[in-house]
Amino acid sequence: MGLVGWYGxxxxxxxxxxxxxxxxxxxxxxxxxxxxxxxxxxxxVGSVLRPHRSRVFLASKCxxxxxxxxxxxxxNRPETIRQSLDESLTRLxxxxxxxxxxxxxxxxxxxxxxxxxxxxxxRAGKIRHIGLSECSVTTLRRAAAVHPVAAVxxxxxxxxxxxEQAMLTVCRELGTTFVxxxxxxxxxxxxxxxxxxxxxxxDNRRNQPRFQDANAEQNGRLVDLVHAIxxxxxxxxxxxxxxxxxxxxxxxxxxxxxxxxxHLLDNLAGGRLQLAAEQLxxxxxLLAESPVAGERHPAAMMQIIDRD
Length: 308
Hints:
308 residues, alpha/beta, TIM Barrel, two-stranded antiparallel sheet
């Protein structure tokens, strides 16, 4: 999401080099969305990865937009899904998308209708697999009764643990992969910044509740512990954060965002790090003593999160 300017300045040369290095390092799962910079992310990612299509498992998403005044809106109507897919394919320059998600759940449209439309697109050969993003367990079960759901994507990290309440278990039951986005807490858990003033003025993270100064001070205690655990392994905080996510269940994969080759190599090393049980317990103990402060999204986005 950050490749074309969502988080601060845009550097196409470095972003392109990062994507190509990822391919060379064996990464094949890339995730974008129609709503990322109003289609510009798909255009950029498609332009870089198109010559390497056979090596790429590409995911994109539909059904999330901004309304008047910046309000977040979910639209899962079948006609919107079909139109959005065609537009995504055009921007990407691909003939098919490997994994196509409903980006947010539209509670005004029965999920059976939306998944039925996605199933038609699978049969038409335009998409290969169906995914849901930020859905509830009830929605997942209803969707899976219509067509297999290959993946559920939700925010998951050591400071966003809602999926542990039921979603991880139900995903295992249904044979659905759980895709954890923002495993680095949008860079905060990696220790990339500690205060809002350290972020570029045009950085979208300035709107995030957990990064506001009053919350960031409390949340920084977790980052201090992550750094300390990293030092015990000669590893970075980012590597610890990724290792934590991957330790939770065998059907969990992580999609950390990155826009530099330096961060790419750092993140990849997190996939090889094994945390000790005692270290995991220290993280649990700290979070019990000092819970995370602030919602994980601004209010407008929290309002359209699908919950049981």
